[in-house]
């Protein structure tokens, strides 16, 4: 019986917490925790957790788990979370660190207890998407009615509860930022109960949901934006940890980062991101909110380089800022937009940042200037612009006194009479404005008047406070129509707001989370759309339909919705590529002397992606001829069905780094066996010589096509060294 819930732990744990503050050495701290456990273990009556209902839905397991049967003999960490909560997301790296240190064989199990805030978060499929998006690899139970939450009298997200091997409650940790205590408490608890022979090393039936998924060209794309010309799209392919630059027809121009998460500056082929969200493009510069790295990154499309311009790669707690960008810690930036300060000498001299992690709007000075109600600032400075840092829905004439609740989307209306930032304030379910004349923060639609009520959500068209949204993540301004479009994410809709009248109405979506391209906007469906953008001429809107892993196109003139022709697993094809990638007859012929390397057979599945990693080495003192088109290309004699819709060729600009050649098998394969040829044709010159050579190499890759899933990505190294003539 959990008499008093977590409150029963409070007296003893508070005493321990005070003693730990006075302890000087790790040994002292360990001894204090050990003595605390002796005291808790010798209690006449355990504080036990009630059994979870047998009818609850489980994820990442082979079936339902009993706390008192299956987890008997385990130290269990219960993580009470809800997937919209930024503080819950901040806790995940701590849990990953714990999982890395101890497994179920060591006696430790983490169980996520999903206790929803929003109605949309009670739906199992939406929790599945969140588990994939945030790479959660431990069991998760959908406690949709918050039964265990109420039984234990949990009061806020996130809360961790550490249980002993009898299901006995030992510790609770409320909020984020307790990594050191979490590791200390769990390690000493494991030691304590191992010494008493109460820890079992049996395996728990873990079955990761992600292992059953087919590969997807995009994975949880969070945001999308257009360049000034309207000809290039930039997509945050968040789940693949990369940024894509495409033409409007879907042809890939650049792939930057991915497919794995990381934190690395450098050339496009070596750069790495971690769940990037917001993106802003100005000419050939892209700014990226690299959310889970707690960084702002800069992509230079001309130099093909990625650099860091703000953040230190560790979650910051500073709510003021003021240091140079690369020295200033920041916290979970979620969106970015380029704009002007009030006294800048140059246009677009500020990068506005939705800093979801500290519930604020920040500014990175791209040039010197002055912010509303602020002093002169030097280029490179990164600081808070609006928001106290308290999580609330508070409007105020003074930007620092206003309060936001996980701001996740930004859009700029620089023209009069607006001259403001629009903010999608997700946890208050509102859209707010910040004046760029005087910094005043005002309400536009959604929410309610009480600044502390973050539960005023719904799906109601109407004006001002009578309109209701549910966790909106994106906004975009239509300059032509003077309208604001909102990604009302948890209502699975796109809404339109007239800022003059404060009217908010459904533009597209039925409210159902699914993937239907209907005959009209209101008969089509979305699944947690996270971002959107509109062409300058106001015709096409692009929507990052996040949980459908798609970018959808809405024609605002004809009211017709469609999917763009987008195959992001295609290659990086430069504008000036001399090859016709869709015409096999125009591919170059290799010299007869070109070697043919036979590769081992590869077992793959329909729809699977193969990444060929091409690394070629020239003879000493040689360099590529910049005037001649060195290239790679793919052929499949007798199996041309393999090539439908593929990118069949690409330019080789630099042999000092590997060229990544993606290839996605058709979802419907016509033969259980096939042969693919990956060929390269290089033109290079010896330094100090006017002679130019053409050399070729061919790699033959036999494919065995299985009917079962082989995993989402197969990588094949293609290596060859050209010898001196």
In short:
InterPro entries: 6-blade_b-propeller_TolB-like (IPR011042), NHL2_NHL_rpt_dom (IPR045302), NHL_repeat (IPR001258), Thioredoxin-like_fold (IPR012336), Thioredoxin-like_sf (IPR036249), Thioredoxin_domain (IPR013766). The protein has about 725 residues and is mainly β.
Describe the 3D structure.
It comes from Glareola pratincola (Collared pratincole). Residues 38-191 form the Thioredoxin domain. This is NHL repeat-containing protein 2. Pfam families: NHL, Thioredoxin_8. The structure is a single chain. The chain is mainly β. It folds into three domains: 6-211, Glutaredoxin, CATH 3.40.30; 221-562, 6 Propeller (Neuraminidase), CATH 2.120.10; 596-721, Immunoglobulin-like (Sandwich). It is 11% helix and 34% strand. It has six helices and 45 strands. The strands form ten sheets. Strands 36, 37, 39, 40, 41, 43 and 44 form a seven-stranded mixed sheet that branches. Strand 5 and strand 6 (169-174) form a beta hairpin. The longest helix is centred in the N-terminal third of the chain and has 17 residues, at 179-195. Residues 567-585 have low confidence and may be disordered.
Provide tags for this entry.
Immunoglobulin-like; 6 helices; 11% helix; Glutaredoxin; six-stranded mixed sheet; single chain; mainly beta; Neuraminidase; 725 residues; seven-stranded mixed sheet
Alpha-beta content class? mainly beta
CATH fold-level assignment of the largest domain: Neuraminidase
CATH superfamily of the largest domain: TolB, C-terminal domain
Radius of gyration: 28 Å
Number of strands: 45
Shape-level CATH architecture of the largest domain: 6 Propeller
Strand content bin:
25-35%
* Overall morphology: globular
Main beta-sheet strand count, sense and barrel state: 7 strands, mixed
Alpha-carbon distance between the two ends:
83 Å
Tally of DSSP helical segments: 6
Taken together, the total number of domains comes to 3
Share of helix, binned? 10-25%
Low-pLDDT segments, ≥5 res? 567-585
Please give the CATH class of the largest domain.
Mainly Beta
Q: Which whole number gives the mean pLDDT? A: 89
């Amino acid at each position: 019986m959990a008499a008093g819930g977590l409150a029963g732990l409070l007296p003893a744990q508070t005493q321990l917490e005070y003693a730990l503050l006075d302890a000087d050495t790790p040994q002292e701290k360990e001894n204090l925790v050990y003595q605390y456990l002796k005291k808790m273990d010798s209690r006449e009556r355990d504080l036990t957790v009630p059994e979870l209902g047998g009818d609850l839905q489980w994820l990442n397991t082979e079936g339902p788990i009993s706390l008192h049967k299956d987890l008997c003999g385990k130290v269990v960490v219960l993580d009470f979370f809800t997937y919209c909560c930024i503080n819950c997301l901040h806790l995940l790296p701590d849990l990953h660190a714990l999982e890395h240190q101890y497994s179920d064989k060591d006696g430790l199990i983490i169980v996520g207890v999903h206790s929803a805030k929003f109605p949309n978060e009670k739906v199992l499929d939406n929790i599945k998407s969140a588990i994939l998006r945030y790479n959660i690899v431990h069991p998760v139970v959908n406690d949709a009615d918050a039964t265990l939450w109420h039984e234990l009298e949990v009061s806020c997200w996130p809360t961790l509860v550490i249980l002993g091997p009898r299901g006995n409650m030992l510790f609770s940790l409320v909020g984020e930022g307790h990594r050191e205590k979490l590791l200390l408490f769990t390690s000493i608890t494991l030691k304590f109960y191992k010494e008493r022979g109460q820890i079992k090393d049996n395996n728990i039936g873990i079955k990761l949901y992600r292992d059953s998924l087919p590969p997807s060209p995009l994975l949880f794309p969070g945001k999308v934006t257009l360049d000034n010309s309207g000809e290039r799209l930039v997509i945050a392919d968040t789940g693949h940890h990369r940024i894509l630059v495409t033409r409007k027809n879907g042809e890939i121009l650049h792939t930057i980062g991915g497919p794995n998460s990381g934190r690395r500056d450098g050339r496009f082929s070596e750069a790495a991101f971690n769940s990037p969200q917001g993106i802003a493009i100005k000419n050939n510069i892209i700014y990226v909110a690299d959310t889970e790295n707690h960084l702002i990154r800069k992509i230079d499309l001309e130099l093909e380089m990625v650099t860091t311009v703000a953040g230190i790669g560790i979650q910051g707690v500073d709510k003021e800022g003021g240091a140079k960008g690369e020295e200033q810690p920041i916290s979970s930036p979620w969106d970015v937009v380029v704009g002007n300060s009030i006294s800048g000498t140059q246009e677009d001299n500020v990068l506005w940042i939705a800093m979801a992690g500290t519930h604020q709007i920040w500014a990175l000075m791209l040039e010197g200037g002055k912010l509303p109600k602020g002093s002169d600032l030097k280029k490179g400075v990164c600081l808070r612009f609006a928001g106290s840092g308290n999580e609330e829905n508070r409007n105020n004439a003074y930007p620092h006194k206003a309060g936001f609740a996980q701001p996740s989307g930004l859009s700029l209306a620089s023209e009069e009479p607006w001259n403001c930032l629009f903010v999608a304030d997700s946890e208050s379910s509102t859209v707010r404005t910040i004046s760029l004349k005087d910094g005043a923060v005002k309400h536009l639609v959604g929410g309610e008047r009480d600044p502390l009520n973050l539960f005023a959500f719904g799906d109601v068209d109407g004006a001002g406070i009578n309109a209701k949204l549910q966790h909106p993540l994106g906004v975009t301004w239509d300059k032509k129509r003077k309208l604001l479009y909102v990604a009302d994410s948890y209502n699975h809709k796109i809404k339109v707001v007239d800022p003059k009248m404060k009217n908010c109405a459904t533009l597209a979506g039925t409210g159902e989370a699914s993937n239907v391209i209907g005959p009209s906007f209101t008969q089509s469906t979305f699944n947690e759309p996270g971002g959107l953008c509109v062409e300058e001429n106001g015709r096409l809107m692009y929507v990052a339909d996040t949980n459908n892993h798609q970018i959808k196109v809405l024609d605002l003139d004809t009211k017709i919705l469609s999917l763009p022709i987008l195959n992001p697993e295609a290659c990086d094809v430069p504008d000036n590529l001399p090859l016709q990638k869709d015409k096999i007859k125009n591919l170059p012929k290799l010299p007869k002397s070109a070697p043919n390397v036979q590769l081992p057979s590869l077992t793959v599945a329909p729809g699977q992606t193969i990444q060929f990693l091409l690394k070629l080495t020239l003879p000493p003192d040689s360099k590529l001829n910049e005037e001649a088109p060195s290239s790679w290309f793919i052929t499949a004699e007798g199996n041309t069905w393999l090539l439908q819709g593929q990118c069949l060729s690409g330019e080789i600009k630099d042999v000092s780094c590997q060229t990544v050649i993606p290839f996605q098998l058709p979802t419907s394969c016509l033969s259980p066996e096939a042969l693919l040829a990956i060929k390269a044709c290089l033109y290079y010159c010896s330094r100090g010589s006017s002679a130019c050579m053409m050399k070729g190499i061919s790699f033959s890759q036999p494919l065995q096509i299985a009917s079962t899933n082989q995993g989402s990505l197969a990588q094949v190294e293609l290596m060859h060294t050209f010898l001196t003539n």
